[in-house]
Amino acid sequence: MQETVNEDQEARRQVLSAVARERELTLGPDPDFDRRLDEHFPTLRSLFHSLYGARQDWLEQLSALVVQCARSWQERSAELTSMDAEREETPDWFQSNGMLGGVCYVDRYAESLEGVRSRIPYFKELGLTYLHLMPLFLAPEPHSDGGYAVSSYRQVNPKLGTMEQLRDLAAELKANGISLVVDFIFNHTSDEHEWARKAAAGDPEYSDYFWIFPDRTMPDAFEANVREIFPENHSGSFIQMADGRWVWATFHTYQWDLNYSNPEVFRAMAAEMLFLANQGVDILRMDAVAFIWKQLGTPCENLPQAHTLLRAFNTVCRLAAPSLLFKSEAIVHPDEVALYIDPAECQLSYNPLQMALIWESLATRDVSLLAQALERRHNIPDGTAWVNYVRSHDDIGWTFADEDAAELGINGFDHRRFLNSFYVNRFPGSFARGVPFQDNPKTGDCRISGTTASLCGMEVEPAEAVERILLAHSVPFSTGGIPLLYLGDEVGQVNDYSYASEPGHEEDSRWVHRPHFPAEQYARRDDPTTPEGAVYAGLKRMIEVRAGTPEFAGTTLVGFRTNNRSVLAYQRPGDSSESTVLVLANFGDSTQALPAETFGGFTAAAVDLLSEATLQLDDGVTLLPRQYLWLRVTPA
Q1: Is 280 helix (H, G, I), strand (E, B) or coil?
Q2: Mean of the pLDDT values across residues 139-167?
Q3: What's the pTM value of the predicted model, to 2 decimals?
Q4: Is 551 a known active-site residue?
Q5: Measured distance between the N- and C-terminal CA atoms of the chain, rounded to whole angstroms
Q6: Using CA atoms, how far apart are residues 492 and 521, in angstroms rounded to an integer?
């Protein structure tokens, strides 16, 4: 114990000495930074030692990291440090029932950053408080992977604008109550990134930034336990470089995995992260978090050190950009998704399980799996929140756990095959018009592409499709967390089948659900007699009611059994014991009647917040096909 205390004291002494030297030269006194350093240094020291303590230079690396943080903090603008202080006073700001997210590609939705800026009045009309701009940093064409092969984290794709324009946009969004979210692709870089170019040229310093080996000995050893992610792109996890060496490339051949066992890489990526925070970015979507740590003899996914890395990055931000939040992106087993959700790790997380099971319930008209997931897997630690969505830029995969399905008598493999068939219109009577992604007709294995409207049947039966779109969104809008709209979905935008004619997109069906801005459909949004207007009006009503309903703040959810496989139900109790919101949603195609005894725990009178109609629970409740109710009820 005494040895540990002495080590801590020596580490603190050396780090503070390094900071003091830097201040004598450039920084000057900073009591605010010193306060946070005093609070967070023990955590940072412990995490950094856990990752790099076996290296003789770990303490020098830690000292350099803290000096780096001090410099970044000094460069942070007065407006951003003021926001840091404000959010330190209200750390639950992102759990508000007034939060609403939107996501889009800059070029496809608005052509440029200036175009996005011009749409701020519309964002305010809709009620957005959170805007996620899909990857917008410099990435080489055609090998950009939709922007996920970054060649510079400090340059915006010139087709979209400049870093100065991004900084100005972030400031204007903040002035209008909207937080900016961008992707931080930190598992890998493009092979055209400066670091990768230097590594390819044989520079030993930058060769250590990546997993590069002279022959197949180590790649073969790693691949004995590592699965192929994109076997159609390349076999294994390594590709051969022009000079004969082998480099780790989990995803595409032009995306080289970073070597986080090298603390220089940690410090380099921390610098990129803090640079973006100082441009006004509020939330970083941490891409491919499951893959960031490699260890021989393991699958190199979801390793404990991946969590340690995230915690260390998080602590860096508490020093130099205190209000910055992380959002995890982990499309893995539900139990693994939950492990990344923690105030000290990722405060926000996508909710891929809820998303997938909304679509599963629409296809089967049976809410059993979704209800089970909400009861079992929805509640997460204090100080965190889900980002709930109906669909994203990515394909839909069926991420439910086979063991959960088995409890309900469902064979996971067979059920996934059915869902794939249903959503690509290979199942008789399907309303969906999805497009397969990475299709294997022999095995029935694929994932699903398509806009919400097309997957809900807008191209087949518009009236029912509108009902399905609103029903689907009623779940993320009421379960707790930040509801996220893929912009264009709020006016019922359908698939863009011309995607295949765009250079570089022909082999990737996901572009079918990344259409360009639908100006004509937005022009009809105020006409409720049109499908566009009906969808927009329904979503706007949910947004307004949610923002005015305190029970919808936070994430706490309590299950509620209807004993009806078509009707989903759950309670949002809020902080008051006087009332709760009971959500009912009929995923069936026929009217469903719930008897009075279903509601025996409540007093008779209830109010539907959406329609403002009064109901008598002692008469039972009848729901029309695809109808949803948000009932304010009082415990008996």
Answers
A1: coil
A2: 95
A3: 0.95
A4: no
A5: 55
A6: 8
